[in-house]
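Hi Y.,

Following your request, here is the sequence exactly as I used it, all 114 residues.
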Amino acid sequence: MLFAVFVNIGNAVIAGTMYNPQDPIQYKFDSYQYKLMIIMAFNSTLGNMMPILAVKFDKASRIASVNFLLVLMCYLGDIYIFGYSTHLLEIIGAAIIIGCSAVTMLLKYTSNTQ
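Below is the corresponding structure, written out as C-alpha cells. Let me know if you'd prefer a different format.
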C-alpha cells in the first residue's frame, strides 16, 4: 500500500508541474496546491484499495452494487464543499441513479443464489 501511495503522489506532482507551451493557461502552483495534490493522491489510493480489500470479506457482485455511493458522495461533496448550485434535472437524475442502484443492491443482498 505504501508503494501505491508514493506512486500516486508522484503522479499528482508530476502532472501538476508538466509544462506545455501551447497551453493558453499557465499554472503556477504554490505549496498549498501541492499539499492538496498530495492529499488527493492519498485519498485516491485509499479509494482504489478499499474495494480490493472488501473482496476479502464479501462477494464481488455485492461490493460492485454499492458503487453508487461513490457517485452520491462526490455529488454531495460538490454541493457542500465547493458550493455547487444544483438544478432540478440534476437532482432528478441523481435520484434515478441512486434509486435504481439501491434496488439492484437490495436484490443482490436478498438473493439466495451462490
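The CA atoms of residues 52 and 60 lie 9 Å apart.

Thanks again,
Q.
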